[in-house]
């Protein structure tokens, strides 16, 4: 084992590749905190997380002033112990998005370092359950797009080898959502998987109404229909509809997922490595979901989730939203509608450090 020698923190702003809108917001930009950890043997691990336009500077300050200074001199292999020590250092700000995003940037770097030192790709180091994961797109389903554009985007996605698409819902009247989904279903046929995402935009009565209106359209799931902290409302919704209910991108702790699963309030888990606090808690959530016979279909961050999906047996879908192309030299490999994890040691992400330096808004170093 080797001790941590230095920690570099970068905050990179990435513009979205396309206009992205949902029921409650627009995707302004991806603020990307990147953490590079070097150990005393000279081995390097790189991790990252994200925001969607706000809070990035707060995450960078949290990393710089409170978390990164704890790392130099510690054993890099003590990932579980480090995660817990870091979490308790900022315990007063947990459970919450900013703390989890900061923890995730460090934790993913430590796992990258561990995998590189072991000479193993992440999907094998973390479990090695499978060698590919089915892929669906969200890029063709944004809320501002007219029905014909949704159809054309799905047709292009199928031509590119993908197997399904997520459509944003939350138009002013339920009939508008139904018409948009129905246009895609009619054009794409029964074999094309359709997911829908409300981004927490509905009240419980409206969620029940829309879920029942969507049932005839054979959907894979209804995602985040109600505010994420209302487990009781999600349970009532789940009991009122045949649609699978998906949650997870706005949950920030293992305990929150436990409450949803134990209550029968969801039937798809969308745990996000960047919002749960890293790979360490992500794997715990995935295995917890497996105990409840619930599939894992993670939110966003496809470049790292492809490996995590292939590490666990109960993963079902990977979400295709490319967003690291400006700062990486690697690309997601796709075969027959599936994403394949990298076979390179580590996370499998080849960073373009010249581009990162060019796009970095702030940086700091410890050690």
Describe the structure.
- The chain is α/β, with parallel strands linked by helices.
- The chain folds into 2 domains: 3-120 and 351-366, Enolase-like, domain 1 (2-Layer Sandwich); 124-339, TIM Barrel, CATH 3.20.20.
- 39% of the residues lie in helices and 18% in strands.
- β8 (245-247), α9 (254-263) and β9 form a beta-alpha-beta unit.
- α5 runs parallel beside α6 and α7 runs parallel beside α8.
What is the strand arrangement across the widest sheet?
5-6-7-8-9
> Which architecture of the largest domain does the CATH hierarchy give at level 2?
Alpha-Beta Barrel
Tally of domains: 2
Largest sheet: 5 strands, parallel
Question: What gyration radius follows from the Cα positions, in whole Å?
Answer: 20 Å
Order of helices and strands: EEEHHHHEHEHEHEHEHEHHHEEEHE
User: Which structural class do the helices and strands define?
Assistant: alpha/beta
Strand content: 15-25%
User: What share of residues is helical?
Assistant: 25-40%
Poorly predicted runs of 5 or more residues: none
Q: What's the total number of strands?
A: 13
Keywords: Magnesium, Metal-binding
Cofactor: Mg(2+)
InterPro entries: Enolase-like_C_sf, Enolase-like_N, Enolase_C-like, Mandel_Rmase/mucon_lact_enz_CS, Mandelate_racemase_C, Mandelate_racemase_N_dom, RHMD-like
Pfam families: MR_MLE_C (PF13378), MR_MLE_N (PF02746)
């Amino acid at each position: 084992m080797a001790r941590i020698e230095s920690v570099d923190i970068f905050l990179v702003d990435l513009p979205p590749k396309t206009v992205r809108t949902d029921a409650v917001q627009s995707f302004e930009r991806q603020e990307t905190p990147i953490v590079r950890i070097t150990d005393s043997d000279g081995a390097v691990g790189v991790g990252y997380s994200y925001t969607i336009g706000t809070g990035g500077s707060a995450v960078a300050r949290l990393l710089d002033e409170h978390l990164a200074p704890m790392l130099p001199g510690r054993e890099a292999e003590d990932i579980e112990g480090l995660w817990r020590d870091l979490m308790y250092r900022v315990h007063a700000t947990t459970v919450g998005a900013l703390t989890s995003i900061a923890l995730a940037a460090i934790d993913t770097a430590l796992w990258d370092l561990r995998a590189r030192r072991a000479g193993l790709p992440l999907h094998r180091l973390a479990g090695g359950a499978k060698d590919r994961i089915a892929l669906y797109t969200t890029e063709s389903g944004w809320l501002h797009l007219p029905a014909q554009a949704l159809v054309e985007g799905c047709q292009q996605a199928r031509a590119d080898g993908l197997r399904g698409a997520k459509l944003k819902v939350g138009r002013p009247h339920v009939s508008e959502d139904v018409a948009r989904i129905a246009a895609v279903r009619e054009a794409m046929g029964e074999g094309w998987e359709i997911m829908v995402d409300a981004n927490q935009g509905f009240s419980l009565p409206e969620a029940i109404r829309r879920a029942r209106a969507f049932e005839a359209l054979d959907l894979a799931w209804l995602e985040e229909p109600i505010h994420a902290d209302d487990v009781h409302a999600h349970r009532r919704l789940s009991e009122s509809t045949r649609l699978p209910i998906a949650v997870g991108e706005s949950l920030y702790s293992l305990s929150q997922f436990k409450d949803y699963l134990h209550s029968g309030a969801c039937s798809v888990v969308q745990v996000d490595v960047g919002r749960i606090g890293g790979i360490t808690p992500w794997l715990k959530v995935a295995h917890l979901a497996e105990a409840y016979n619930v599939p894992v279909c993670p939110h966003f961050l496809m470049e790292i989730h492809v490996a995590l999906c292939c590490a666990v047996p109960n993963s079902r879908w990977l979400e295709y939203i490319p967003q690291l192309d400006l700062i990486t030299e690697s690309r997601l490999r796709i075969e027959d509608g599936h994403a394949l994890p990298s076979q390179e040691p580590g996370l499998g992400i080849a960073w373009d450090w010249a581009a990162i330096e060019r796009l970095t808004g702030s940086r700091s170093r410890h050690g």
